[in-house]
Design a protein that fits this description.
This protein has one helix spanning 3-17; strands spanning 25-31, 36-42, 51-52, 60-61, 73-80, 83-91, 99-104, 109-118, 128-134, 137-145, 150-155, 161-167, 183-192. By secondary structure, it is mostly beta strands. The longest helix has 15 residues, at 3-17. It is globular and about 45 Å long.
Length: 194
Amino acid sequence: MSAAGVAVLAAGVVVGTQLVPEPATVASSVETSSSRTTTTTTTYSPDPNAFWLADRTPAASTSVDDRYDKSPWTSGTANLRGNTRYKAWSATGAWCGTAQLEFMLDGQFGRLNAQVGIAANSEVTKPLDFFLVVDGNRVAEYQTVGKAPQPVDVSIAGARTLTIGVEPPEGDSTRCPGPERIAVWAEARLVPAR
């Protein structure tokens, strides 16, 4: 391998081991003795005009239970089925009742794309129900979601408000407080209206 090839490989190792604030496209070059080959691996390719929901400040948050006075929601990284998701809203305590997080959109977005699931570090693998409310109307439900992430792709054209939520499935017998189940809205992207 030439000196240039070693330098590219070393740079790839350094870049690949750094924590990045969000998923990115990774490219690497490998030089062979007969010809130069370039390999590009795309790990994530969102619409460049989209906005991360995890970067927005919520307008309101509901607690899962009257006994708790702080929001069950946190923004940051989450692990779904062994894969780190760099932009996520996670709710703890969702087995106790409904947790909702509301955002003001002012009609500027056309779609919401995301993944929902139970975090890999949850103590219990029992499923939860995820839902989406637009301008006060429940427009999508993802029932009995477990640790396998489920895709979300919903039209939110003209929406003034967007609420993401999670709740225990009907008939869930888990007592509150109980073993932790962490609900995750991962890599939620707001795609601008066109």
